[in-house]
Amino acid sequence: MLNDSSKKVKDITSMNEDFARWYTDVVKKAELVDYSIVRGCMVIRPYGYAIWENIQKELDRRFKELGHENVMMPMFIPESLLQKEKDHVEGFAPEVAWVTMGGNEKLQERLCVRPTSETLFCDHYKNVIESYRDLPKLYNQWCSVVRWEKTTRPFLRSLEFLWQEGHTMHETAEEALKETETMLEVYADFFENCLAIPVVRGRKTDKEKFAGAEATYTIEAMMHDGKALQSGTSHYFGDGFAKAFDITFTGRDNKPHFPHQTSWGMSTRVIGAIIMTHGDDNGLVLPPRIAPTQVIIVPVATHKEGVIEKAEELKARLSKDFRVKLDASNNSPGWKYAEYEMKGVPLRLEIGPRDIENNQCVLALRADGSKKIVSLDNLEAEVENALNEIHDILYNKALENRKEKTYSCNNLEEIVKTANEKNGFIKALWCGELACEEELKEKAGITSRCIPFGEEMEDGVCVCCGKKAKNLVYWGKAY
Amino acid sequence: MLNDSSKKVKDITSMNEDFARWYTDVVKKAELVDYSIVRGCMVIRPYGYAIWENIQKELDRRFKELGHENVMMPMFIPESLLQKEKDHVEGFAPEVAWVTMGGNEKLQERLCVRPTSETLFCDHYKNVIESYRDLPKLYNQWCSVVRWEKTTRPFLRSLEFLWQEGHTMHETAEEALKETETMLEVYADFFENCLAIPVVRGRKTDKEKFAGAEATYTIEAMMHDGKALQSGTSHYFGDGFAKAFDITFTGRDNKPHFPHQTSWGMSTRVIGAIIMTHGDDNGLVLPPRIAPTQVIIVPVATHKEGVIEKAEELKARLSKDFRVKLDASNNSPGWKYAEYEMKGVPLRLEIGPRDIENNQCVLALRADGSKKIVSLDNLEAEVENALNEIHDILYNKALENRKEKTYSCNNLEEIVKTANEKNGFIKALWCGELACEEELKEKAGITSRCIPFGEEMEDGVCVCCGKKAKNLVYWGKAY
After folding, report:
1. Is B50 at the interface with chain A, CB within 8 A?
2. Does A67 touch chain B if contact means CB atoms closer than 8 Å?
3. How much is the pTM?
4. Helix (H, G, I), strand (E, B) or coil at A130
5. ipTM, two decimals
6. Does domain A295-402 have CATH number 3.40.1010.10?
7. pLDDT at B247
């Protein structure tokens, strides 16, 4: 398709006209996914998968630096195994796919396709943990999981999605809690420093926490339209699963103990977060640190002698430090500009005969449309600076958007009005009761996103029932 | 477990006593897999998965250098889609797992868990191929697939296994055939130059080829016990699937054409090949280029001043170029030697007080048990040389074993006698008829491994029926 100059690139819906349609248009036009014949499943195309590979590389490096090791569990969970932890099975059983036949035979016991792998990890941990010397176990796996969703959207909610799931076992509760916090911070740091997406770190309410967990920590990002996207979660299980699965270890005191457990996951949803945080009416806008192509070189007046050669020389130079592509095709520069804008390539390098004469080139920043002329002498440093600048522009834009769309409400009337009129984060006090959480869902259509870390709460009353408040909560509509 | 010095490392069955038990002992003792609660599925433990990650890295780099891109297809195939290509469905339908329930609802159409993804790729290619300008499509995916096997063994044959599957579409038959050959050579080169396993390259007979393919190319490796392991295959489909799926493109002549297709795959079976080719009675023996740990540093007399420090210094030095671990635990050197021999670490570096005095260390080669004293001055070069030497030792040993166990037979009596008495490759002429292939299976218990490339065939008669021979064939018992 790239080479066919007769096709228009830019016929996508405007963001402000219809954000949902804009999203699906971008996903298709930027060639990230193709809809699959299998309901609710997606085909991740080369450009989309290359983004995922860069995400994987960054996260995997961070995990390994902290001592985690990758493993692979089976994709199937026997029904009896799924049922071992009561809360867990209640949360997941309604939304799993069941294998009931193998070849031509009916199975004696149904197998579900893993929606998450706590039960499989526990079954394995039982075999390999004997003594405190075997702890901690710091495992992770990269795989796909299946959740039988009714309505689906590429990256945001699909029957099958790719993710990583970390599963760790520890000698003490303190250690496990520390791991839960550490991994949340790894996610937050990745979002802010790799994806240029600011996040609110916090704890989920009991209603919103993971099935079977004692506590769920989350990072919540705000999309361009003001809706929230839960972007990564880290769970503390205490010894609940260990007890259900009878996993014990001999402690330093020579007595049996239950180990303490965590799990944490991040998925291809992240790609949805990137699209909806940074994208605009010209298409995708990729943060430089995970963009498959960081710099696209577009030669101008390619028929003039020496232009293609110079462009190739620059490509060779920059390829040592950056992910660079050169488009030397016969398509017009204008077509190319639109194409790589749609694909969200962070930096465009234009080089033509006059530039060559002047030993310079043009750098065009996708993030804000600005251009600058730079000398070819220290091009590497110029590109490096421009990519960092783009990262900062994107981060600050997103932060600005979040600030604009974060509201404080003090009573039920205010919160209902705000939620009806706008999308955004609503900060409001809460008594801690499920009833109030459910009432806010019903009356204002919002859910609790998290109880934020590191934000001081003033004394006050619950926005819903008026009783003494326990927590400051971020509320919002969510993807 | 590593830290518990009370556990014995080396209680494994001897290879010659019982090769099959030796294999499963090594797989367990070297901590490559754990048996899973799910019948026929395996848990790949950190050490096993680290080997797979190195295999992935090497193969993925080779694929990408040739212009291939990674994608991700759904894991499910609707029954009607699987049935579109007649031969393909006949080959695979009897051995797939069927999802029949999603959540609490019975599905209107069964979904199989992919045993291979030709049908899914074709369904996608139909959407994205319009013109010859869209060709070739050079796609690959890393995923797991499921085949409902009755008897299973870790890595060699399991219900679920990890693999990569390349799927490409081309403008012409010639181009597709060239791709099929190129990818077989990528596999062969990877086996010989990364895994130190010599292979026979060849073509499968019609009986043994992939369901739906016009031709299947294979690399066949010989295990230590003389049995064959089909280690990687590359298929040429012609335009059969394209016709079944109605995939056409507008050619340079402005007329519609069917594209020509290939697929090629390599799986976690490769780890089985490594174990059974290089392993010995002390455990695993890993080829240096994919070993998770290439050098294990074992300090001797750790209580003496300066020993640990020197070991750490060497670790820091070598870690720049190699994958290095230091075991500074309190376990005895003898225990450590046995442990890392079991794990198959290619090179052990011993350093003690006297070595430090003499500015030297000992390098012990896992491949042949030899030791050498080397100066610390150019340790990097010494280690590099030793690792290359180990690669060559392993390759030559395996080649020697294959030569010893390759036989030529001229008539039915000879081939039956040889196959009854020995495992190995049997080279014999064949008329090309299925009946003879089946008779050899029945009478000698052997299957055709391949019609080798690049081996000249002398005139002669079929070893089975005595009619004029068409092909020289490698026969054998296979995993």
Report:
1. yes
2. no
3. 0.96
4. coil
5. 0.95
6. no
7. 98
